[in-house]
């Protein structure tokens, strides 16, 4: 009898404990805004007793590998996943993600339409944008001025090359321009796709045939390799966002075309030596302005297999709300709030005062249109990627070749030819054509 | 022998040792620098050490949890491994058959399948048995991947135990347990110890499985490193601090056991 | 009875290893015959040997096979030569011998991920890295290691990690050298080369076999160092078979092709183990 009672008590206690603590395992990228979110987590836990947050913070590539493996095998290790604009529509369509249901307080109409569209399938939102970005040109106004030049309002790549030539001064440790070179579909290919877009190129034609040996690709890549070889820092083929950010903050880059999110870091005097000498311009164009700046969002999603969907959605609604942005503004500083998701952010006086990049960033995000980003018509959605499952493989293989071309290991023509072959193999294997 | 030669040899040995150790030393120094000092050109050898990187790492991730997981999984897998490997090695050494050598080679060959190739099968199986993100799951993996090496090491030690002693013991009517307890264990203790040491080091440093099969609960120090591997902005000092925290326990441990390692790593190669 | 005991003692090890091998193996064989991409599941149709064909016709395939052997071969040679030299250097007593030994074996305890990050950022970075500073100090243009010599860079890192292991084994082995024999040889006026050739080398030969074998097993699956530093590039310059499988499985998420690749690696390993049997056979026979 006594034993039974003890057992029953234990069970009750256990149930109570289980009830008291809903543990949410959240997988995030290890970049600035996400780390801030991790730190802000305590406010959420305070307001929602009974929910505990557990963080798994990983580098981008590893994160992608972890969440994809887990969701595809229904592993159920994560309750909230950080995913991008590439995965969301593909997984949403498969029914792998739980729909995000906004409540009235969430004010979904405040969300920038480009973001909302990019993360929805058939009008259902499958991931809530935590921060959004486009790409733009960031340059050192002091160097450009000193060279007696003026940055055009809408520069072309030819003009950029001329400016780079003038301000390039390796003896003093200043390189004309820094661009991504590290292989990866989210690394060098994100940038290169926008470059190719602006040269009038595309990944696939309407019959899904890869187009990598066409003239726009050849012109764009030749230009890129030549530009970085002459006016870029050494080791460009290993540089991606983080590496260049470090270089830029050290004052080693004259110009940089990359994610708008960089603006909040390079204008922050705490980490940047050149915070007060930065100016912005739209991403350069060449043959066309279409698709010259990308569109990306890191968004939070709930796997359909999660058993804690309610708590997980609660967390997501909190982390992507206006209140969260205000919270970060108050606690960390208005220059550090996650941007690119809500109209109200760009109307906030505190933010506008702290962030001199606000207008440039908003303009870039609004001008990107994933549904129409190439000069010839394309069958795919996405500015700097094509949202089909096969794209990762193609992007990675091409990225490797472009990086090799940049390092001088192969010629541009050969690199493109090999990339075309790789793309062709993948598309054939997937059955797009015989 | 003549003095000059000794000095030359001493100098050369020290020089090479310092060169080989330099990267670790540099890592240790960078961990105590500020981020700007960490990338300064030319490099700084003298600076005021700061603890801010360690504080930052600790505030972001609970070091003790990771260290605890590393410790538990590597110790548990070592013990489990010894428990399975020792009897097998004993059997192979003292009841040798024609196929013993084939068996040994087969065991070693199971280590050759690249882990990346079988991640998905293992992931699916682990998911079925609810072993994902558990210390038990990692312990099993570590044990299985070290087992072949352990069997081999122990086998070569046991083989060096003079058979006459064993036979004498058997003549006296010793049971299997007696034989193990009073003959094999005392004579093979050095072998068991260095096998355990090696296994501990290998488990502690394993990163592929721990990174892919664990997340919030069972993550080891190898997964801690993954979250500092290339974040935004300047990160060398923080990365160094996290790395130092991850490798320091096992390095210090290794230093203390140096003697045992130097004596024990024979793999049957010493007569 | 004896036979039974022997079998009984072997069972846990053999049984668990067998399970550990057969379950993933059977699943891999199954996966390698179907269309299975993690990004687009659902239609797991049977496609015969297409995944195998795809894996071996990959333009990166032959470079990867070659790089695998280059990597293993160079690391083994480097660690053998330097490991032996170092072991001989620190074998006899000198001031600080035990500290020197401790310093020498330290890299072996560093986990591969840290090893790679350490070399990539703090040593080989062309702008801030220590090596670049050294080069600049001597007035030379800093070498961009990971870009210009990707495979060599990986070889350096892996060798740094495995050198202490080889060194340890040789030190251990040298401790059992026959002192009297050595003395006698010295008395007879044998020079260093002769001593090395006729006394040390034969004594160390079994250790050499052990080092070769263990390193071969571990180096076949080197990939953390490549993943963290060069990403297999530029191009395929530092892609080995393990990394190629990683690219297929965890970057392209094509489990079918990755499984086919994994099975190919098993084949490769078996070819390697034919050599192994020869080596181990010699080394274990008494």
Span from first to last CA of chain B?
A: 29 Å
Query: Quick one: CATH class of chain C?
Result: Mainly Alpha
Q: How many distinct domains of chain C?
A: 1
Helical percentage of chain C:
over 70%
Shape of chain C: globular
Summarize the structure in short:
The complex is a heterotrimer of chains A (434), B (271) and C (286). Chain B has 271 residues and is mainly alpha-helical. Chain B has helices spanning 3-31, 35-38, 52-60, 63-94, 100-109, 119-128, 135-159, 163-171, 176-205, 208-213, 221-226, 236-256, 258-264.
Overview of the molecule:
The complex is a heterotrimer of chains A (434), B (271) and C (286). In chain A, 45% of the residues lie in helices and 14% in strands. Chain A is α/β, with parallel strands linked by helices and 434 residues long. Chain A folds into two domains: 2-132 and 296-354, Periplasmic binding protein-like II (D-Maltodextrin-Binding Protein, domain 2, 3-Layer(aba) Sandwich), CATH 3.40.190; 134-294 and 370-429, D-Maltodextrin-Binding Protein, domain 2, CATH 3.40.190.10. In chain A, strands 1, 2, 3, 6, 7, 8, 9 and 10 form an eight-stranded mixed beta sheet that branches. In chain A, strands 4-5 form a two-stranded antiparallel ribbon. In chain A, α8 crosses α9 and α17 (391-406) runs antiparallel to α18. The longest helix of chain A has 19 residues, at 2-20. Residues 9-18 of chain A have low confidence and may be disordered. By secondary structure, chain B is mostly helical. Chain B has a domain at 62-227: MetI-like fold (Orthogonal Bundle). Helix content of chain B is 73%, strand content 0%. Chain B has helices at 3-31, 35-38, 52-60, 63-94, 100-109, 119-128, 135-159, 163-171, 176-205, 208-213, 221-226, 236-256, 258-264. The longest helix of chain B has 32 residues, at 63-94. Chain B is globular, with a radius of gyration of 23 Å. The mean pLDDT of chain B is 87. Chain C has 286 residues and is mainly alpha-helical. Chain C is 73% helix and 0% strand. In chain C, α3 packs across α10, α3 (61-89) crosses α12 (241-251) and α12 (241-251) packs antiparallel against α13 (255-284). The radius of gyration of chain C is 23 Å and the shape is globular. The two termini of chain C are 27 Å apart. Chains in contact: A-B, A-C, B-C. The interface between B and C is large, with 95 and 105 residues.
């Amino acid at each position: 009898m006594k034993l039974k009672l003890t057992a029953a008590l234990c069970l009750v206690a256990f149930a109570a404990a289980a009830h008291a603590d809903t543990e949410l395992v959240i997988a995030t990228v290890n970049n600035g805004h996400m780390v801030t979110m991790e730190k802000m987590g305590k406010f959420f836990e305070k307001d929602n007793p009974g929910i505990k947050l557990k963080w798994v913070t990983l580098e981008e590539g590893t994160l992608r590998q972890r969440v994809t493996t887990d969701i595809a095998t229904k592993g159920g290790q994560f309750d909230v996943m950080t995913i991008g604009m590439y995965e969301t529509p593909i997984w949403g369509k498969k029914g792998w993600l739980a729909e995000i249901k906004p409540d009235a307080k969430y004010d979904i109409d405040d969300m920038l339409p480009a973001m909302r569209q990019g993360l929805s399938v058939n009008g259902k939102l499958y991931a809530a944008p935590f921060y959004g970005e486009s790409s733009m040109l960031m340059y050192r106004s002091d160097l450009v001025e000193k060279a007696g030049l003026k940055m055009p309002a809408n520069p072309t790549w030819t003009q950029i090359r001329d400016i780079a030539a003038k301000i390039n001064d390796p003896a003093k440790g200043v390189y004309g321009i820094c661009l991504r070179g590290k292989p990866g579909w989210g690394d060098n290919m994100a940038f290169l796709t926008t470059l190719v877009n602006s040269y009038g190129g595309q990944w696939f034609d309407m019959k899904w045939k890869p187009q990598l040996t066409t003239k726009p690709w050849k012109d764009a890549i030749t230009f890129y390799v030549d530009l970085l070889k002459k006016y870029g820092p050494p080791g460009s083929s290993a540089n991606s966002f983080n590496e260049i950010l470090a270089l830029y903050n050290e004052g080693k880059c004259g110009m940089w075309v990359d994610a708008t999110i960089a603006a909040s870091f390079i204008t922050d005097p705490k980490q940047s030596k050149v915070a007060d000498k930065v100016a912005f311009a739209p991403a350069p164009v060449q043959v066309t302005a279409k698709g010259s700046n990308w569109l990306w969002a890191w968004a939070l999603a709930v796997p359909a297999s999660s058993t804690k969907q309610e708590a997980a959605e609660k967390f997501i609604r909190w982390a992507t709300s206006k209140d969260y942005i205000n919270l970060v503004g108050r606690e960390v500083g208005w220059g550090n709030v996650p941007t690119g998701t809500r109209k109200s952010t760009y109307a906030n006086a505190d933010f506008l005062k702290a962030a001199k990049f606000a207008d440039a960033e908003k303009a870039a995000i609004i001008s990107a249109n994933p549904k129409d980003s190439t000069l010839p018509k394309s069958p795919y959605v996405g500015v700097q990627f094509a949202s089909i499952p096969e794209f990762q493989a193609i992007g990675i293989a091409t990225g490797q070749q472009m990086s090799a071309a940049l390092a001088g290991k192969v010629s541009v023509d050969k690199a493109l030819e090999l990339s075309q072959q790789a793309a062709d193999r993948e598309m054939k294997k997937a059955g797009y054509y015989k | 022998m003549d003095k000059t030669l000794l000095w030359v040899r001493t100098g050369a040995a020290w020089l090479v040792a310092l060169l080989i150790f330099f990267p670790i030393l540099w890592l240790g120094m960078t961990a105590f620098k500020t981020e700007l000092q960490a990338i300064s050109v030319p490099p700084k050898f003298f600076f005021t050490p700061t603890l801010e990187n360690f504080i930052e790492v600790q505030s972001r991730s609970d070091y003790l949890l990771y260290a605890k997981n590393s410790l538990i999984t590597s110790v548990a897998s070592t013990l489990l491994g010894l428990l399975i490997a020792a009897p097998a090695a004993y059997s192979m050494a003292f009841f040798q058959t024609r196929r013993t050598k084939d068996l040994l080679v087969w065991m070693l060959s199971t280590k050759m399948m690249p882990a990346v190739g079988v991640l998905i099968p293992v992931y699916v199986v682990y998911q079925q048995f609810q072993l994902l993100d558990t210390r038990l799951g990692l312990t099993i993996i570590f044990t299985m991947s070290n087992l072949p090496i352990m069997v081999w090491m122990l086998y070569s030690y046991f083989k060096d135990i003079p058979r006459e002693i064993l036979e004498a013991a058997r003549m006296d009517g010793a049971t299997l347990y007696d034989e193990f307890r009073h003959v094999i264990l005392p004579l093979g203790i050095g072998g068991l110890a260095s096998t355990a040491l090696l296994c501990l080091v290998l488990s502690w440093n394993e990163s592929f499985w721990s990174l892919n099969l664990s997340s919030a609960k069972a993550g080891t120090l190898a997964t801690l490193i993954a979250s500092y591997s290339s974040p935004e902005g300047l990160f060398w000092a923080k990365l160094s601090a996290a790395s130092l925290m991850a490798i320091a326990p096992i390095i210090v441990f290794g230093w203390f056991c140096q003697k045992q390692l130097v004596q024990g790593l024979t793999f049957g190669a010493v007569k | 009875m004896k036979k039974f005991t022997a079998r009984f003692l072997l069972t846990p090890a053999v049984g668990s290893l067998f399970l550990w091998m057969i379950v993933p193996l059977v699943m891999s064989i199954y996966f390698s015959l179907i269309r299975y991409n993690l990004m687009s599941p659902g239609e797991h149709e049977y496609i015969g040997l297409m995944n195998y064909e795809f894996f071996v016709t990959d333009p990166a395939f032959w470079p990867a096979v070659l790089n695998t052997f280059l990597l293993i071969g160079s690391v083994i040679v480097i660690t053998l030569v330097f490991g032996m030299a170092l072991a001989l250097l620190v074998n006899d007593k000198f001031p600080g011998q035990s500290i020197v030994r401790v310093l020498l074996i330290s890299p072996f305890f560093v986990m591969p991920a840290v090893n790679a990050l350490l070399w990539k950022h703090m040593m080989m970075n062309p702008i801030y890295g220590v090596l670049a500073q050294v080069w600049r100090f001597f007035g030379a243009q800093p070498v961009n290691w990971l870009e210009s010599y990707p495979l060599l860079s990986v070889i350096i890192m892996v060798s740094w990690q495995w050198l202490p292991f080889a060194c340890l084994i040789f030190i251990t082995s040298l401790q059992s050298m026959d002192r009297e024999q050595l003395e006698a040889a010295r008395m007879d006026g044998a020079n260093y080369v002769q001593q090395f050739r006729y006394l040390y080398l034969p004594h160390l030969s079994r250790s050499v076999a052990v080092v070769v074998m263990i390193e071969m097993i571990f180096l076949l699956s080197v990939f953390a160092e490549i993943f963290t530093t060069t990403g297999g590039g530029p191009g395929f310059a530092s892609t080995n078979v393990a990394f190629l499988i990683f690219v297929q499985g965890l970057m392209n998420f094509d489990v079918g092709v990755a499984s086919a690749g994994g099975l190919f690696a098993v084949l490769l390993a078996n070819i390697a183990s034919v050599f192994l049997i020869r080596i181990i056979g010699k080394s274990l026979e008494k």
